[in-house]
Design a protein that fits this description.
- The termini are far apart.
- The chain has one domain.
- By secondary structure, it is mainly α.
- The chain has helices at residues 9-12, 22-32, 54-82, 90-116, 133-138, 143-159, 162-168, 172-204, 213-232, 238-252, 272-276, 290-305, 307-321, 333-349, 360-368, 373-390, 392-397, 400-422, 426-441, 444-456, 463-467, 471-492.
Length: 502
């Protein structure tokens, strides 16, 4: 019998024909992989490409194009309102999105998570921060100053292993409640956006008839498609198949006229001087000064504080979908934090404006498909570069039916399901319920910090678990996390009824 511990991946690999099912083959691949952290990982020697890798790659490309477009639109509107000399429109936003898709895709998807450290999940978009970008811009923050601060704080936290520590101190009930809330709220938001889009088609295109029923038809068909895929154990196909179904239904019911191809092929300007060198080109802001750093500080603290619950959800999703004995391929929270920090500073230096975090629209479909990080990361990076250069696919991915359905079946429904799986008994349901309640009252970050503090001290949830924790794990670390989160929220006005201190 071959020594599994001392044998390499290439020695332990077996062709799929030797297994009873495709699922068994994918499980075996996860169990024999031994990715090298901060070393060179090579196809064939350390991992293989499988056709299942296309699913998270396509899902991640759709998701990130949607997110980047939303981020740049928010930055452009906020900065144009804040500064009299700044005028950032749709053409500018497209160019920044292309910068964000080219540089990070090459450096941090293909090279970083693909070849150098497959234990680090891809650095994507910080979705919960998108609603705050308008406020960030109006507060006088500078995107480059924000990126530098966020990157420095993130590197410090990852160096001292703070991210993994916070993840380990988050109980299952707290984590389950957090996932349920994020999944439910995200699902409701996308459903509402889809209906708003359908109801607005009549006025937008001066039609004599209403198309408000199109959203209902798209959702009804996709509920059936998703249910069938779940029954067959093929949920990892949900994003491409459900997106295709959404396009087909939209065209069948006359809503296809809303799809316009306006983004022509091309390359963005990749010279940092163009973007930050003067007040006449790029972002039209010039280099940041001390005032910009002060205005950006509380938002940088808040963004980094929100990383841990975000990373926690993605790591848990892997654990729920991967078989046993796959610890070596689970994402490393601290390594992911390091890559996110570096990606934040490098991507913004080249002209980007994204606020980064662990890439959920990649990780969640990858976990469902039982695929490790590296191969899909490389495929995704290539797809992002192709989409950015060609241009026209960007118009499809941000079209409302595709965007909403992709986020629904690829992110929010799986999050909701994972959260419900984690709530296993009365003690977990108590922690989960309070976490959901606090999320509704304030926001998910406040809820995570508060319920983690209460749960670790036995005030809610499992009291026996609290007795096993040290004083630092019960009070100092959770208490410090809670104080930092509340202080940052007070500074930027995120606590309901309390005006911003800065």
């Amino acid at each position: 019998m071959r020594d599994v511990e001392n044998s390499s991946y290439s020695e332990l690999h077996k062709p799929s024909s030797e297994f009873d099912s495709r699922s068994d083959y994918l499980d075996h691949e996860l169990q024999i992989m031994k990715p090298r952290r901060w070393g060179l990982n090579l196809p064939g020697r350390d991992f293989r490409f499988e056709w299942e890798d296309l699913v998270p790659a396509i899902a991640g490309t759709i998701g990130i194009t949607v997110m980047y477009s939303a981020v740049m639109a928010a930055w452009g509107a906020g900065l144009t309102e804040r500064w009299d000399h700044v005028n950032l429109g749709a053409e500018w936003a497209i160019e920044v999105v292309r910068v964000e898709m080219l540089i990070p895709a090459l450096l941090f998807c293909i090279l970083g998570s693909g070849f150098i450290n497959p234990r680090a999940n891809l650095a994507g978009n910080h979705g919960p921060m998108i609603p705050l970008i308008g406020a960030i811009a109006l507060a006088g923050a500078h995107p480059l100053a924000l990126a530098i601060l966020l990157g420095v704080f993130g590197l410090l936290l990852s160096y001292f292993k703070g991210g993994s520590k916070l993840v380990n101190l988050t109980g299952e009930g707290v984590a389950g409640g957090l996932l349920v809330y994020l999944g439910a709220m995200g699902s409701m938001g996308q459903i509402g956006s889809l209906f708003t889009w359908a109801e607005g088609l009549q006025a937008k295109h001066a039609l004599d008839y209403s198309l408000s029923h199109v959203a209902l038809m798209i959702l009804a068909v996709n509920i059936i498609v998703y249910s069938v895929l779940a029954r067959m154990g093929k949920r990892w196909l949900a994003i491409p198949l459900c997106s295709i179904a959404a396009v087909a239904i939209a065209f069948a019911f006359g809503a296809g006229l809303d799809l316009e191809f306006v983004t022509a092929p091309g390359l963005p300007n990749l010279n940092p001087v163009y973007w930050w060198g003067s007040t006449e080109t790029g972002w039209q802001l010039g280099l940041p000064n001390l005032q910009h750093f002060i205005a950006s500080l509380p938002f940088a603290i808040l963004a980094v504080a929100m990383w841990s619950p975000d990373f926690l959800g993605h790591r848990i999703f892997q654990e729920l979908n991967y078989p046993k004995k796959t610890d070596k391929v689970l994402m490393d929270v601290d390594d992911t934090m390091t890559c996110c920090s570096l990606r934040q500073m490098v991507g913004t230096a080249f002209g980007g404006g994204n606020i980064t975090s662990s890439w959920g629209t990649y990780m969640i479909p990858a976990a469902i498909a039982k695929r490790p990080i590296p191969a899909g990361a490389i495929v995704l990076g290539v797809l992002c570069i192709v989409v950015a250069v060609i241009g026209y696919p960007m118009d499809i991915t941000v079209w409302r039916p595709v965007m909403s359905i992709a986020l629904l079946v690829g992110v929010f429904l799986p999050l909701l399901e994972a959260g419900m799986q984690m709530v296993k008994d009365t003690k977990d349901s108590q922690s989960a319920g309070i976490c959901i309640f606090a999320s509704i009252v304030v926001n998910p970050v406040f809820a995570w910090a508060l319920t983690m503090l209460l749960d670790n001290n036995g005030l809610i949830g499992d009291k026996e678990r609290a007795n096993k924790l040290s004083f630092a794990d019960r009070l100092i670390i959770p208490g410090g996390a809670f104080i930092i989160c509340v202080a940052a929220m007070l500074a930027v006005g995120m606590l309901p009824g309390v005006p911003a201190l800065l």
